[in-house]
Amino acid sequence: MTNYKNVEALREFDTPLLVVDLDDVEENIDRMMKRFLRFSNVAVRPHQKTAKSPAFARMILERGAKGICVAKLSEAEVFVRDGIDDILITTEIAGELKLARLMALLKHAPNLKIVVDNRMVVNELQKAIQAAGYRGTLIILIDYNVGQDRTGVETEEDVLSLAKSISECSFLELIGIQGYEGHLQHLDSSTREARCRQAMEKLVSAANALRGNGFDISVVTTGGTGTAEICASVDGITEVQPGSFIFMDVAYRNATAGAYRNALKLVSTVISKPSKNRAVIDAGTKSLSIDMGNAEPCERPDWTYRPAGDEHGVLESATGEIDLVVGDRVALWPSHIDTTVALHDYFHVVRDNAFIGAWPIAARGKVQ
After folding, report:
1. Where are the alpha helices (DSSP H) in the chain?
2. How far is the C-alpha of 345 from the C-alpha of 25, rounded, in Å?
3. What does the H/E/C string look like for 159-205?
4. Considering Cα of 20, then 24, then 29, then 32, what sign does the dihedral take?
5. Which one, 55, 197, 200, 316, has the greatest CB density within 10 A?
6. What is the per-residue pLDDT for 182?
7. Quick check: helix, strand or coil at residue 29?
8. Domains of the chain, earliest start first
9. Burial of residue 193 (number of CB atoms within 10 Å: 0-12, 13-18, 19+)
10. Cβ–Cβ contacts within 10 Å for residue 161, how many?
11. pLDDT higher than 80, residue 2
């Protein structure tokens, strides 16, 4: 593990800045792929809403991942421009503007896959493909609610009804079903496993119902970093979508008992020292997300961090003095990696105490 303080070149970059240890990233990818080698019928399609970077996506693909997932159409556009086209967009696409963009993208990425949970959108997709003059088919997965109560059709009857509507559209090809159990990712291990298995049984049951009604279902996709191994152990699951494993964060570290390394930290500068047990740094809520709790100081577990506004954060010690002075740099582990990465433009990549480069977060801001 590289100590960022030993990387001289990082001092040329102002704070707050994201620092990624490439050795830790590669170790995380290798650990993840090894975990799934024992599941011979389960492919890994890592989610890129975390890293938002074609460079990191290629590292995973080179180690055996089947393809990638993204959350938004605009993210898919970034990865297709970089030559990656086996992409599943895991969020529903609706509206004339997005359908027009989807048609344009499909011409460059015939392996693109999307999810649907609405008959009206199915009909609109058929019309859009006809109007665009696209000669192939658009690959479709049905999105099924397995307990998160976000998107997805509600019952097996709804799944079958939607599948019938898709089958009536000559330009749409139904290949599978998606069910994401995001609400279970950070539960305690025993509760998480029991509830995840229930969710997976529901998902597999729907896939089998589709097959029993004559639909050729080859993909049953699910799973996040906190549940992917549980999901993969359930007969009938064919694909998992972990994403945060590549960098990790405080929430997933706690949920997975250190299954992967924390490979990304935010480096900040002390800008004020009002008292001996309090230091103010230049990283507030515009640098570190707080939706999953507060970040943690990397080197000093006896210190705590709390946001003090958009641009300020406070380090405090309940037991003694904080031995920092104005101008010192300090590193923190983000509590939620996805929403923290989304606040920054570059990863500052290091390896073996050397600076590798500033890698753009290419899909940052791609929320459309």
Report:
1. 22-37, 54-62, 73-81, 96-106, 119-132, 156-167, 189-212, 228-232, 250-256, 337-341
2. 19
3. HHHHHHHHHCCCCEEEEEEECCCHHHCCCCHHHHHHHHHHHHHHHHH
4. negative
5. 200
6. 86
7. helix
8. 4-19+258-360 (2.40.37.20), 23-247 (3.20.20.10)
9. middle
10. 13
11. no
Residue among 305, 308, 310, 306 nearest 285 (CA): 310
The Cα–Cα gap between 279 and 325 comes to: 8
Which residues does 77 contact at the CB level (< 8 Å), separation at least 6? 101, 105, 366
Q: What dihedral angle (degrees, nearest 10) is formed by the CA atoms of 307, 309, 311, 312?
A: -50
Q: How far is CA 235 from CA 39, 50, 201, 208, 272, in A?
A: 10, 28, 9, 11, 56
| Sequence-separated (6 or more) residues with CB below 8 Å from residue 275 | none
**Could you tell me the CA-to-CA distances from 214 to 138, 153, 167, 351 in Å, in that order?**
20, 19, 11, 52
This prediction's pTM? 0.96
Q: Please identify which residue in the block is written with the tokens 């590292």.
A: 59
- One DSSP character per residue, 318-366 reads SSS-----TT-EEEEE-S-HHHHHTT-SEEEEEETTEEEEEEE-TTTT-
Instruction: Please give the Cα distance from 106 to 273 (Å, whole number).
Output: 55
Q: Give the Cβ contact number of residue 346 at 10 Å.
A: 15
Q: Which segment, 30-34, 206-210, 252-256, is predicted with the most confidence on average?
A: 206-210
pLDDT in tens, 332-345: 999 999 999 999 99
Grade residue 6 by pLDDT with cuts at 50, 70 and 90.
confident
Which letter does DSSP use for residue 142 in this model?
A: E
Question: Which letter does DSSP use for residue 133 in this model?
Answer: T
